[in-house]
Amino acid sequence: MAVDKTAHALWKDAVEDSRREAAKHDQSSSSFSGMVNGEKAQISPRKTNPRNADEAARANEGLYFRQLLPGRDFAKPENATTPIESLLFNVAVKMQNCVYLVGDTASRTCVCVDGCWDVASVEEAARKDGMEIVAVLASHNHFDHIGGTPPAPFEGLGVKIPGLLELLAEDPNRVGYVHEVEVTEAVERIGLEDAERLLSVRDGSKIKVGQKVVLEVIHTPGHTRGSCCVLVTLGGADEMLLSGDTIFPGSHGRCDLEESEPESLFSSDGVRRVAELQDDLRIYPGHTYGGRHTTVGREREAGMLAQVRPRSNI
To answer: Residues with Cβ < 8 Å from 176, sequence gap 6 or more?
Structure first.
């Protein structure tokens, strides 16, 4: 089973690509719109819903949901206004990060999950939908999900990736959430001076949005020690799972990094719970390496969940 190429390596690849394109005086987005330079999950072709069709259907039921994609909804290279912004947007497109907005249509409030790279466009997407972002949740604290300082050797360039820090700065009443084992590192990575605005969550923590929508944190260590999935419920019924870098369609996030916990990837209580969710529950990943979405049943049959032993068998 394929795993993703580390975000640090993708950052390096994308920066080098951007430099080469700049040297040729061609920084068009087409140069960066191909597949990620990593091993891809082997999955069968399948159709996906037209843009916003799924979002519209759920909105009719009271759940607001948007999957924002780089190059389409945010981080559009053609909209970059500075050389640094052009670099960051091209990197974002190459890394295929997803940003999510999940909320309650009645209260018109939502939570931003893994907001990064282009905060202005994320804010604008919510505003255009008549929604107010009231909180920011990170699936884990890697730079491509919360922003801040990029990995070596590029941290010396003084480049800061917009993300959690800027989203919190937009509204003094907003709070951020990250798993408790990664709070300290996240504060340092993004340079947050008021650390009290970043709250810790743990397995089972619930973030209520409006009266009917709940985001429940499921701790799924492996990719990082604090990696989490987010189970979204509406009126107590499971609606979808945001899997961060724990599950990609047909694959999973790398677990050979210094901050990884490989022994937990297939054995934590959290991932075992995920493996027991209903077959047709849709999973939305942190990157679209293998597709925009998958299902629990598909991943249990031919993805990482196939290697997870249900709690009932232990």
So the answer is: 135, 136, 137, 138, 164, 167, 168, 197, 198, 199
Is 145:101 a contact under the CB 8 Å cutoff?
no
Alpha-carbon gap, residue 297 to 80, rounded angstroms: 40
Rounded Cα gap, residues 163 and 88, in angstroms: 12
54 membership: H or E segment, kind and range = helix 53-60
> Each residue of 76-128: pLDDT tens digit?
999 999 998 998 999 999 999 999 999 999 999 999 999 999 999 999 999 99
Q: For position 110, which CATH number holds?
A: 3.60.15.10
Position 5 confidence tier, pLDDT thresholds 50, 70, 90: low
Q: In the prediction, which pLDDT does 61 show? A: 81
Query: Domain total for the chain?
Result: 1
Note whether residue 89 is domain-resident: yes
Q: In which domain, by residue range, is 309 found?
A: 7-15+52-313
* pTM for the predicted model, two decimal places: 0.84
